[in-house]
Amino acid sequence: MDDLNSVRAISDQELSDRLALIQLSARDIELLKNLHVRLKGIRMDFLDEFYVQMLQFEETSRLLSDPEQVERLKTKQAAYFERLIEGRYDHDYVKDRVQIGATHHRIGLKPQWYIGAYHFYLAWLFEQMQHTPHTEDKECFAALLAVIKVILFDIELAIDAYFQADHDMLRLMAQVFESNVEGVLISDTRGRILHANRKVSSIAGYSHEELLRLPVTTLLAPQERNVFVDYWQGINVGSPWQGETYLQKRDGKSFPAWVNVSAVMDDNNRVTHFVIEFSDISAYRLAQEALQQRTEELARSNKELEQFAYVASHDLQEPLRMVASFTQLLARRYEGKLDADADEFIHYAVDGATRMQTLINDLLAYSRVGTRVKPFELVSLEIVLQKALDNLRLAVEESGAEIVRPTLPTILGDTVQLTQLFQNLIANAIKFRGEASPKINISVSCSDDFWRVELNDNGIGIAPEFFERIFVIFQRLHTKEDYPGTGIGLAICKKIVERHGGTISVESEPDQGATFIVILPKIKSEEVNQ
Amino acid sequence: MSLEEIGRAAEFLLVEDNPGDVRLTKEALTESKVKNNLNVVGDGEEAMAFLRRQGKYAEAPRPDVILLDLNLPKKNGREVLEEIKADPSLKRIPVVIITSSEAEQDVLRTYDLHVNCYVNKPVDLEQFVKVVQSIETFWLTIVKLPSEIEE
C-alpha cells in the first residue's frame, strides 16, 4: 500500500503531455515572465478579502481559527500565486502542486474552496492590468490567457492529487473491508445486500454474485427472523444492535454468530445503508460448552469426594465404636487383675481408639461443611457472634478473656456454620493465649463488595512459615500435651469461609499475638430483592 | 400394679444386628436393679415374627419395651416401627429407637411414625452404659406401662 501522504511522481512524458494539452507555448511563458516582473512587489491585498470570505463558512472557519496560522497561510499563498506566473513549469513545480492537493485532502479542505481563490486572483490581475496603455491591449489579453491556462493546469494537478489521495484512501478501506476477519455486509435501506466481503461467502457458503441483491434476512436462521424485526426498529433510529444470534448458511445449516448491525446516516440523519458484521462463534461455543462440562464434572467429583469423606467417616465410626467400647470394657473389668504389661497394653489400646474416634468425628464435622448444607439466608453476624460467645461462656470466664466487639453487618450465609467460624476463631484465641489473660479485639471494615472482619489476639502467635499450614486439615504446630486438639478447627473455618465466597488469612509473629482476617462478600442489591 | 408386684421379670426385645452392641447392651443391663429378660433378634423380619409369635417364636413373651435399631437387614427399623404402630395388638408397646444415626430426617420421620423416644448410641462406653441404664430405669421404674394394666 502506498503511503497516503506520499505524492505520486509524474513522468517527463506525462508532464509534456499535460502542458501540450493546455497548449502552453514559449510565447505564453515569455508573457508570464514579463507579467511576473511587472507585478513583483505589489501587495496581493485580495488575499485579505479571500480569508474574510472563507471565515463565513463553518467548514473553512474551523480550519482557520488560529490568526497566526492564517497569516502564515497568506504568506504561503502569495508566494504560490507569484510562482504561478514565474514561468518555470518543471518537475519541482509539478511536485509542489501535487503536494498541495494531497495536503488539502489530508486536512479535509475540499477543492471547491481553493478553486475559489483563483477567482480572487484573476479579479485582482484584471484590476492591475486596467492601467496598461491601450497599445498593449493585445499583449495584455494574451498574458491573461496564459495565466488562465496555467491556472487550469494547476487546478488539474491539484484536483488530480486530491482524488488520487481519496482513491488511495478508498482502496485502503476496501482492503480492510475485504480482508476483515468478520463477515461484513452493506445493505440498502430495504435490507438488500449491496456489498459483501469474502468472509461472508466463506462462512455462509454463498458466492459473491448470489449475495448481491439478496435480502440480509436470508442469512438469519428462521427462528430468529421475527426477533430481528424488533431490533431493526432500534437500528433504524441509530442505535446499533449487538449480540448473539443464529445465522443460516446456504445449505440451511444454522450456526451461532456474534452480530453487530448499525445504520449509516447521511448529513441529514437519514439512514442510507445498513452495515452488518458477524463472526461464526461455533468453535467458541464448543469450547465454552466443554469448559462448562468440565466444570460440572469437577463439581460432581468434588461433591462425590465430600460424600465419600462423609460416608467413610460415618461408616468407620461404627466398627471403631466397637473397638473403643470393648477395649474400655476390658479396662473396666480387668485393670489391675492381670499383670502390669496387660494394663499398659490396654491403656494404649483405649488411648488409640479414643484418639481415632476424635479424628473421625472431626473429619465428619469437616465434611459436613460441604455436604449437610442449607440454602443461604440473611444472617446477622451480630447475633452469630453473640451465639458463639454464649457457647464459649465457660472458657471466656475461666480465662478472664476481654473481648472488644464492634457492630457487625448482616450477610447472606449459613447461621450454624458462621457461628462455628466465630466460635473456632475465638476459642483458638483463648486456647493459644500467652502468659497474660487473653485480649481479643474484633474489628470490621469494608470495601465495595466485601466485609473484612479482623480478630486480633495477644496470644502466642504463629511464625510466618506456618501461615498456610494452619488451615490444612489435621495440621498441628504443638504437641498434644501443650495444646490438645486434632488440628481441625481452622480447616473447618477455611471451608466455611470459602463456601461463603470469602477468604481467611492470618497475620502474626511469634509472641506478638495473631490477627485472623475473614473476608466475606456483602449482600448484592439484586440479592436483597429476592 | 408394677411388674415387680405382678411378680415377673420385665421383657425387653432388642432388635439389633450388631452382636457387639447386643453384648454391650447386655453388659449394661447386668448391673440393673430391676429383674429383666433381654430377648434379641437380628433383623426386622425376625422382630415381626417374634412380636406376632410366628414359627420358632410361638412361645415368645410379649415385650414390655422394644429397643429398635434403625439400620437393619431385610426390613429396616422404620418399616418395623411402621408395622408395629399400624397393628392394633402391638401399637401400645413402647418403642425406643436406639441408633447411631444423627440425621435430623431420621429423628423427625420416626416421631411421625409415633416412636416413643429416639436415642443416639453414644460413642463412648461410659456414656453408652449410662444411656442404656437410663432407658431401663425410666421405662421400668418411672413409666406406667400399658402391659401393667393389660395383665
From TrEMBL, chain B:
Keyword terms: Phosphoprotein
SUPFAM superfamilies, per database record: CheY-like
Entries under InterPro entries matching the protein: CheY-like_superfamily, Sig_transdc_resp-reg_receiver, TCS_response_regulator
Keyword Phosphoprotein on entry: yes
Sites bearing 4-aspartylphosphate, chain numbering: 69
GO biological process, one term: phosphorelay signal transduction system
Name used for this protein in its record: Response regulator
Domain Response regulatory: from-to ranges: 11-136
Source organism of the structure: Methylotuvimicrobium buryatense (Methylomicrobium buryatense)
Pfam family of the protein (one): Response_reg
